[in-house]
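Incident log, structure service

09:12 report received: a user says their structure output differs between two submissions of the same chain.
09:20 pulled the input from the user's history:
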Amino acid sequence: MEKFKAFLKRKDIEISARRYGIDALGAMAQGLFCTLLIGTIINTIGSQFHIEALTKTVATISGADYTIGGLATAMSGPAMAVAIGSALHCPPLVLFSLITVGFASNALGGAGGPLAVLFIAIIASEIGKAVSKETKIDIIITPLVTIGVGVGLSAWWAPALGSAAMHVGDLIMWATELQPFLMGILVSVLVGIALTLPISSAAICAALGLTGLAGGAAVAGCCAQMIGFAVMSYKENKLGGLVSQGIGTSMLQMGNIVKNPRIWIAPIITSAITGPLATCVFHLTMNGAPVSSGMGTCGLVGQIGVYTGWLNDIAVGNKAAITGFDWFGLIMISFILPAIICPLINEILIRIGWVKSGDLALD
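09:34 re-ran on a clean worker, output below:
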């Protein structure tokens, strides 16, 4: 057993919830952002502003036409797998072999491909690391083992993992349609909490394919955390803190949350308020790329996702046009309500002594 532990240490194989549930998951979201999300944004900009360079076909592969954004989107599987491998400190031969693994697992996982990529890329990475530089023909053995394990598991597991992810996502979306008030609260609060924790709410939403009303509630929860923390900590952090949290990430407050968990009460209550308002009053749907549901105001990706979803709905005949009420709801849920409600709740917490000056200051 001691020899095995020493081997794992030498190979930098750390079997832990942090390594897989935080590092790998967070990296996977970055891979998604740099391909699927950016590709969607490029396509949206091209179509809305009639930019020919962004809307014309730049490649035709197996009869399928691709724009620049389409090519970026098509590379989401390899990008996720390589990002995961990078987070797991894979050596070069393993890392590059994960390109094939990511493509296979994402393609075979169907709409739930991101979850399949997460599981399979982790296993392929660790097995690849285990055999790396253990033979004199490393340049053959390491890619062969990494790709063999990854593609084999993709054929065996990916369809089931993808199907399971989609069933869970469908269940959440069905429940939100059935009980928009209660599920609006639940989805908004949980996804918002995930956004601020050192895990990836974007990757979770992408893995579950979370769209529709549930996606709208998720956007609301993320915005409540980001805008809420940004505005209520303005006295301590000024403009820099407003920007870094408001369009960056509320994760910056995790150190302060550990010191005083009560500072998290106001954003969480705010998300519990704006979530059902999004689902029941404004009927806010997010039918763009599912990863957008877990991004909130980070780079305004959540709002771009909602807008892209509106365009998708119009294109397929599910929506006649984008109305003034649509824009009003998006702005209220994303910016105005969190900026008003969260500081008011925090002021109550200050008055009763649960939160004090300096608790929200960023280093």
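09:41 both user submissions now match this output. Likely a transient worker issue. Closing.
09:42 reviewer note: The chain has a mean pLDDT of 93. Residues 2-166 form one domain.
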